[in-house]
Amino acid sequence: MSADIPATPERSDFIREIVAADVREGRVSDVVTRFPPEPNGYLHIGHPKSIALNFGIAQEFGGRCHLRFDDTNPIKEEQEYIDSIQEDIRWLGFEWGEHLYFASDYFHQLYDWALYLIKAGKAYVDDLSADEIREYRGTLTEPGKNSPWRDRSIEENLDLFERMRAGEFPDGARVLRAKIDMASPNINMRDPVLYRILHATHPRTGDEWCIYPLYDFAHGQSDAIEGVTHSLCTLEFEDHRPLYDWLIENLPVPSRPRQYEFSRLNFTYTVLSKRFLRRLVSEGHVRGWDDPRMPTLAALRRRGFPPEGLRNFLDIVGLGGKGTSAAEIEMLEHEVRDVLNRRAPRRFAVLRPLKLVIDNYPEAQVEEMEAVNNPEDPSAGTRKVPFARELWIERDDFMENPPSKFFRLAPGREVRLRYAYLVTCTDVVKDASDEIVELRCTYDPETHGGDAPDGRRPKATLHWLSSEHAVPAEVRLYDRLFTRPDPGADGDLFADLNPDSETVREECLVEPELAGLPIGETVQFERLGYFCPDPDSTPGRLVFNRTLGLRDTWARLQAQSRRP
RNA sequence: UGGGGCGUAGCCAAGUGGUAAGGCAACGGGUUUUGGUCCCGUGAUCCCAGGUUCGAAUCCUGGCGCCCCAGCCA
């Protein structure tokens, strides 16, 4: 388990209480859990709850957590996903060591157990088609009826199942079913299908098999093989538990795992359906699974989210109850900002440059101004930022006719240039089309560093860049992928996609210090937000992603006055 | 009108018969060389109706509402 995550015994929820009781009362000695992803897509923001739960419990109880791929459906699964899932779990901060497993490792054992069930008269080969099986299953309110093939002899079942395995039949021709109860009120118990014929190449077993077990026949048995004590899954499997138990009880498995269910975690402004995410990628609405707008872990990583923010969020949310819930995405963002505020070095960057010339500042002079790297962390020290007569400031920091609540730069007004001087705007230069192209200012030489000897305190402090020293960069601003908190509520997810989820600004400038920043390292652009270099960066062209903006009271005020 | 679950503030969530934690959001105010951070303040009688009890969000009964299950997906 990762060393940087301290065990917090105080953490408690109904599952930890069950585990604690099992240990206390001697039902289990070594706690074993498992995270069982199907490698059919990228891990998304809904997965860490299960990952942190399973790895966390193993860690807290001195047990172990297995990473086991539930790879029983070769039609949907790919090696690319097997790789990305491992990378994402490690990024999140969890480690399974040598305990990497695949359900496909157990195909031979599972096959033997299928034979065992047949010999016990508890499974049979059914010749019904998929459609017929559906008809025979009955409905939610009516019982099903027995398949005409339900009472074949054990010998015939054995023969047929072996021939299924040998590849004598085409896909869909026959299935192996458990013989339980077609009248059960629980549809999962109406002779569930255990094996189907699939002439497909498996990412790991290749063409060795043409029959594959279904989830229900693979999962619990894999748990038993690995000695998993607590098999934690989401609520929708609650009514599979009787089947889970039935199989464990009717097979000569080496251990007795127990299944417990917890609620999934959803978020506002977010869609986690793998099918939909796959379409976003394949239809080009985003550039890939790790497009920073995606809700995948790969995307959050690329966007600069610290995994600790995710973990802290999960700690605060807890396991929750057994109801349906969607956390407001703001809650996650708060935890991410909390981590970044403490950790991210401060830097200067200008997104929409406006030229500012200080008329009374010596023509060729350059001063190295001392800037604090992180006011939240004195040990981060300081750095030098070059200051000169010609500067860039943020266009949004100047208004020719400011409303009363605007207290940044305006004609005749004095503001502070952070860590530099107090400057006063004396003139506004415009081009032929009346666009403001330049500001003329004067500075007060007595205010070096930003403090006035006479105690004058401007209402605003601005960030700036020396035009001679500033480094050009592209900055990509990200916003929510959807325009509403409940995307798709009107029936069309695509209609709710936010057309402004990405804004690319090519003409940005950053302080020289930023040129060598490693990919994925998140810094704060003062007064703007958190940003990190994107992998698209090249030595000659810096590209930054906005991880998250800072809370912005001024923007909120403006929005309020626009729609009162 | 089958089965399995769930209903505590806008959102998440503690609470397990003794008189409703906490966080996010929102709204006020203070500090501030980031309109950031930080600090202070403001909100519920627990889906509804009966009942048991000295006492119920917690127990019982009856309603109402919401979620999941009819893949040879997981």
What this model shows, in words?
- The chain has 564 residues and is of the alpha/beta class.
- The chain is built from 13 helices and 27 strands.
- The strands form seven sheets. Strands 12-25-26-27-23-24-13 form a seven-stranded mixed β-sheet, covered by helices on one side. A seven-stranded mixed β-sheet has the order 21-18-19-20-14-17-22, with no helix packed on it. It has a four-stranded antiparallel β-sheet with strand order 4-5-6-7.
- Helix 8 links the parallel strand 8 and strand 9.
- Helix 11 packs across helix 12.
- The longest helix is centred in the middle third of the chain and has 15 residues.
- It starts with 13 loop residues before the first helix and ends with a helix.
- The N terminus is likely disordered.
